[in-house]
Amino acid sequence: MAERVLLTGATGFVGRQVLASLLARGVALHAVSRGAPPAAPGVTWHRADLLADGVALIRDVRPTLLVHAAWFVEHGRFWTAPENAAWLEASEALARSFVEMGGRRFVGVGSCAEYAETDAADDQPWPETRRVAPATPYGQAKAELAARLARLPISVAWARLFHLFGPGEHPDRLVPSVTRALAAGREARIASGRPVRDVAPTHFVGEALAALALSEVTGPVNVASGEGRSIAEVARILASAAGRPDLLRLGALPDRPGEVPCMVADITRLRREVGFTRPPAVERALRDIADAT
To answer: What would the pLDDT profile of 9-28 be if each residue is shown by its tens digit?
Structure first.
């Protein structure tokens, strides 16, 4: 019998990609949506507000594997929003109900924002053993949930995502803001672009999360490309793909104070233990987005 999987956040920026990847792997998939769910053959949908109905949902579905991708992620607000505390408590309640109902494995979605922004080896990729010292309420809530889940008497994996781009991204974020400006023949104005980031397309991350969920790997696992690119390089790829490098304006906006110079994931666990070795194809995905804009 196929594993009964429940996916929360299934219509979100990352969750929709996890949904597609889990479906492709033949699981008995149940998914949660607060509103009317999209058409997705092979998915059993449940409408629920997880802040109020999560425990009841677990009792109704009785999944054996729970992939928890839901959280408050409103652009520009989520870093400091009070909703982070509510989601921490609701997520723990969801997990405890899952254990009580006989759940076997819980996979949570965390963030590189849980890690300390500065450390002794900042010129090296960040491993899962890096010091956890989040600087924002969002990172603090995620790190606290990871710590609470680790004490549960079931198999628990915690995916720490780095920087993402893909369909459904908020228009004010880097990739859509640059591509939309270039497509309209306007200047794409950004800051210096010096910071180096680990960027990955959401379809790649969705596949990696599905692989992690269906593995037996436990504990924190970085889910990222494992490749570092400056923000300027990302913008140049987009401008080149759009055929408008003349409209890219690096340094037109001020750099954010206190910007972390380099954030790149060590993905050894993802590759060796989870066995997920698919190339992230970051440049190809960036060019595809530019071509489609």
So the answer is: 999 999 999 999 999 999 99
In terms of residue numbers, what domain contains 157?
4-165+200-225
Kindly report the length of the chain. Answer: 293
Residue 233 lies in a domain: no
Query: How many domains would you assign to the chain?
Result: 1
Is 208 within a domain? yes
What's the Cα-to-Cα distance from 185 to each of 228, 239, 242, 286, rounded to whole Å?
A: 29, 11, 10, 18
Query: What pLDDT shows up at residue 36?
Result: 85
What is the reported pLDDT for 35? 86
Q: Is residue 17 part of a domain?
A: yes
Q: In this structure, how many other beta carbons lie within 10 angstroms of the beta carbon of residue 292?
A: 9
Answering whether pTM is above 0.70, one says: yes
